[in-house]
Amino acid sequence: MMRCKILISSLAFASVLMSTVAPAAMASSSDDAQLQALRREMQEMRREMQGQISTLKSRLAKSEAATATHQRGAYTQHASSGPVHRHIESGPTDPSVQFNEPATGASRIHLANAGTPTSDRGDITSWKSFRAATKSDENVHVGGMIIGFPKGRFTVASEDAAYGLSIGLAFHQDFGGFFNSGPRGKDARGAFNSFTSNMRRLRIPFTFRYKNWVAAVTPDFGANHNDGYVGLYEGNLNYTGLHNTILTVGYFQPRVTEEDSESSNDFFTLERPSITDMVRNIAAGDARFSVGALHYEKRWWIAGYFTGQEWGHRNASDMSSTYYGGGSGSTMDSQTGGTLRVAGRPVATKDWDVHMGASGISAFRLACNSTSANNCARSTSFGQRPEFDIGEANLAATGAIAGAKQVWAAGPELGVRWKRLIVKGEYYHVGVERQGANLKSAGFQGWYGSAAYTLFGNPRMYNEKEGAFGAPGVPEAQEFDPATNHWGALEVVGHYSVIDLNSRLGDAYKANVIRGGQQTVWTGGLNWYPNRHFRVMLDYSHFIVSRSEQATNIEGRTGNSVAARIQAGF
């Protein structure tokens, strides 16, 4: 720092000296040509010195700011092998002035440098973490603003990162079809296309920040099981000023179950296992009004939310078509519920991670939809597609369950990582408490087991902020480039998934008998990541569904599907 100050003073003095000596030198010359040449040479030297002064001042300001920041303990210095920072300063500069200064480092979450995909959600981080991210990634300084791609997402921020706007993308285009999946007997064919496509997700996360206050708004142009619907994935306000804690209010996806805590950009297969999708929609799921918080540490994670209705649930113009389960224009009393998830990580080493947890969810009071001016009906239903979502019909489904007072689900989750291999699974029991003469409670269950092995590229690692396992990573030096024998990352995945939607099949009272069928799905697939922003997925599934009361599955049904997804995330 002292060296910078001495050089600045010396150069400034030389510049002033030349500006005073030049006229005398020029006046003493009688040769006009020599005079003009000397004037041009002096002007060129003066511009060069001004550029050097500007560069030195900029470096001095950076050095002082870095020193002050280090003294406050805001950032941690890393080795010179860390990320390279290119700062383009406004004003004249001289790139030949070099002091071999070490690059400024910054503390970041464990997966930040692993080349993992970006999230499909608004990036809700603390102000401290946001400042670290904007300083750790390549960026451009223009007029007191920072423009860059911290963690791969386009961001414009003020110099101190107090104000920020980030714009992202989650693009999932699915295509494929079913074969050997025809109906038996008098069953209806259903929407089991031999080939079709669906824009599964087209989300554009907007994240607006002022220090530790963050607003996330994410419209979704793929908000339905069929193309052509526009919806809302999230619209919420968050406060991040408490250590490793995010307080949230608004339309949100409450984190419940291990699979639901993952970003969809990180899924093993195209869709969640049926039981986790079924459980999360009881009182969570996408765009659910929520008030709550999550907190995470290296070894444990907890989140709880009070929840209300889903976005669009009272919209009469879209009663049967909303992505979030169908609305009703006759709702007299909206649903209320809550979620709680607790997870621990008792083993965390270079080669091993052990994850254990439990989730609970409940709809304390189901929505009351009017049947007359003074009466209402409360009911619920469950149904799941065979884990391929291009608009096909449900085969396993309960139909409407009348007299439903409360709905709840609970179960454990377990995951183990050993080097490049991850094995995980969850089990949930679902209960429906009913009220009415002779009505008994209903019970359902489901479970899954999944495995993934990374053939090349960085393996899946544990994401402390999500309390779940992230996707494989592709560092910049390993991005797909056949010319340099780099191929990104490739993993092989598979899972076994079961839901049982049958309840009280032998009960003498017909209203207590629910024959929703049992669905088993075997899935295997490959996921290729050419870089952190793109993925290509290919899944093969075989499904077996026992008979239900659906028109598409009165006699039981089996089938196969092949599906692919192209994914982009920023």
Name the descriptors.
single chain, 570 residues, alpha+beta, Porin, 21-stranded antiparallel sheet, 5 helices
Describe this structure in words.
There is one protein chain. This protein is of the alpha+beta class. It has one domain: Porin, CATH 2.40.160. It has 5 helices and 30 strands. The chain has a 21-stranded antiparallel β-sheet, with helices on one face. The chain has a 3-stranded antiparallel β-sheet with strand order 13-16-17, with no helix packed on it. The chain has a two-stranded antiparallel ribbon with strand order 18-21. A hairpin with a 7-residue loop joins strand 23 and strand 24. Helix 1 runs antiparallel to helix 2. The chain starts with a helix and ends with a strand. The relative contact order is 0.12. The N terminus is likely disordered.
Mean pLDDT: 84
CATH class value: Mainly Beta
Strand tally is 30
| Second-tier CATH architecture | Beta Barrel
* CATH fold field value: Porin
Q: Could you name the CATH homologous superfamily?
A: Porin
| Structural class by secondary-structure content | alpha+beta
Specify the biggest β-sheet.
Answer: 21 strands, antiparallel
Radius of gyration, Cα only, in angstroms? 30 Å
State the helicity in percent bands. 10-25%
| Straight-line distance between termini | 39 Å
Principal-axes geometry comes out as globular
Q: How many structural domains can be distinguished in the coordinates? A: 1
**Could you name the ranges where pLDDT drops below 50 across 5 or more consecutive residues?**
2-8, 16-29, 68-112
Total number of helical segments? 5
Content of β-strand? 35-45%
